Amino acid sequence: MKTRDTKISQPRHTMTIEKDVKVQMRDGAILYADVFRPKEAGKFPAIINISAYQKDKVWVPPSDLEEKANPYMSWETVNPLWWVPRGYACVRVDTRGSGKSPGLSDPGGWQETLDFYDSIEWTARRAWCSGNIGTSGISYHAGTQWKVAGLQPPSLKAIMPWEGNADTYRDAVFHGGIFQLYYLATWYATQMAHHLLGDPQEYNPDAFHNERLYQYMRHSLDTGWWDNRSAHGDKIKVPLYSVGNWSGHNLHLRGNVEGYVRAASRHKKLRIHCGTHYHAFYTEEGRMDQLRWFDYWLKGIDTGIMDEPPVKLLIRTGGGAMKDYKFRFENEWPLARTQWTKFYLKTEKKEPSSAAMGVEGSLLKQAPKKQTALTYSATGTTHAGVASASSTMLSAATLHRTGVSFETGPMPKDTEVTGPVKLVLWVSSTTKDMDTFATIRNIGPDGKDVWEVGQQGQAVPVAKGWLRASHRKLDPKRSLPYRPYHAHNERWWLKPNEPVECEIEIWPTGMVFKKGHRIRLDIQPRDGVGSAPYTHYPAAYNTGGENTVYTGGGMVSYLLLPIIPPKGK
Q1: Does 2 or 18 have the greater pLDDT score?
Q2: What span, in angstroms and rounded, lies between the C-alpha atoms of 368 and 374?
Q3: How far is it, in rounded angstroms, from Cα 478 to Cα 116?
Q4: Which of 23, 41, 283, 399 counts the most CB atoms within 10 A of its CB?
Q5: From CA 311, how far away is CA 269, in angstroms rounded?
Q6: Please, which residues bridge with residue 121 across strands?
């Protein structure tokens, strides 16, 4: 579809800045905001953010970012020097208890969502504002959008959550019931340091005083506490453009896909790209999607964006330069022409291999008639031993390969896998629980991984999924044949050596496995390749235990992949 380049806002305004503007909340509390807006007379729409990232903290981007450094750049938010000349105000609010805003800190909590609502309506009442408000931004700035949209602020006309979780429990904190410790702990410590060891200690010494990390671990089941910390799709009615990242298979991607699917918005779109967590947002191509979206909904300009199919996917072809990847439009998610294909696990070795690229079995189109089993260590060993008190037990990953792996034969032709993925495993353990970390990898003809660029610029595999066996209970109302939905509201402990069936959600993916490449599935008791920095706290009570995977016969284990034929076939 061709962009109507003549029908988008052009840079014609100069910028004025209002610092430390008082924004009054419904309970009388005062938050502080910076307002960047056109200097000329008139009424303009606004793009607003609220976060704990400090409105005054300047972000100096990497040199390869398409938008260049300037004194007004802020982490994961729109650049005023680009947006204000095009007739938009940009409003940044320090959330309660952070930056310059006093009060009790609760990042991601209910009070923050109410404060975002009030900030939106406050902005809409300004004399310079047209009354039309949009929200945009990455990660934290996306998660807040999902939640506030459910409150339906009257002045909120469009949202664009870019790489941000919607279901905080499942998308960000407890992957398959397994706590994502390393990223969450370092995020928490970093924000605390920015406030207590940085500039805010001079003017807001009680900033970022909260028990976020404790509360997360304390509420390890989804039994009510998480309700007002997550999106409620049935209440989201505002026009929605959800933007995900294939490389975000450890953080956010699930939120963007599930948020899109479950939102009740009449007008909604989904885009998925790849690469780092921030580059795409600031590319000319990414900005054009944003501008065309907000021009349409906030200014009433027919940019042509609503004439395009609702789904826009960057097609990865496996390890090539990202500049070679091309976007493709689709009409729905999952794709209607998907050929749901089962690849059955078949064990072919009696014990795990110690080789780094060892393979214990095959992925086959036909289910094995004979039942077999393969047992491996339930913990794995680091240089610090097993279940040591040292934090390096997690951060250093394993020195030795853990778990077991299965591979297809070489692909007979280029094979596209795009959509949700499900792994069904029959398993048992000698202990009361079992953690499964599943990784899908693209193995080239040379037997080596074909890596993609991750959110932090690191090398990552194709996709990941997780499940703690005690969390295997499904929600039948929300589960789909290709995407299990786990209730996470009670624990179903294992009985020693008694097999159970587990349906494991592997986050959506999009990859063309080239002719001659193999699809590899790793099943491990802890984080596998390409996980850092999004690593987890595995079940400590599994120390010294053994896990078993069953295949074939009466215990058929399989990987369900969404094979996509070319259009028209």
Answers
A1: 18
A2: 14
A3: 29
A4: 23
A5: 6
A6: none
**What is the pLDDT confidence band of residue 15, given thresholds at 50, 70 and 90?**
very high
Q: What is the spatial distance between Cα 406 and Cα 358, in angstroms, rounded to a whole number?
A: 9
Strand partners, 452: 460
Which backbone phi and psi does 126 adopt, to 5 degrees? -65, 150
Handedness of CA 272, 275, 278, 279 (dihedral sign): negative
485 exposure class (CB count in 10 Å sphere: 0-12, 13-18, 19+): middle
Say if domain 5-308 classifies as CATH 3.40.50.1820. Answer: yes
Give per-residue pLDDT as tens, 237-291: 999 999 999 999 999 999 999 999 999 999 999 999 999 999 999 999 999 999 9
Lowest mean pLDDT among 160-164, 339-343, 529-533: 529-533
Domain ranges of the chain: 5-308, 339-564
Instruction: Give which of 493, 539, 487, 540 is closest to 223, Cα–Cα.
Output: 487
Question: H or E stretch including 284?
Answer: helix 284-294
10 Å CB burial of residue 195 (0-12, 13-18, 19+) is buried
**Percent of the chain whose pLDDT exceeds 70:** 94
> 538 falls in which pLDDT band (50, 70, 90)?
confident
Residue among 128, 124, 160 at smallest CA distance from 144: 160
User: Which of 348, 317, 34, 306 minimizes the C-alpha distance to 158?
Assistant: 306
Q: Which two tokens stand for residue 337?
A: 């022409």
Can you list the alpha helix ranges (DSSP code H) found in 138-221? 140-149, 181-196, 200-203, 212-218
What mean pLDDT do residues 208-236 have?
A: 96
Per-residue model confidence as pLDDT tens digits over 428-451: 999 999 999 999 999 999 999 999
Architecture of domain 339-564: Sandwich (2.60)
Q: Could you list the beta-strand ranges (E) of 67-188.
A: 89-94, 129-138, 156-162, 174-175, 178-179
Predicted TM-score of the model (pTM): 0.95
How many other CB atoms are there within 10 angstroms of residue 266's CB atom?
A: 9
Q: What is the amino acid identity at position 315?
A: I
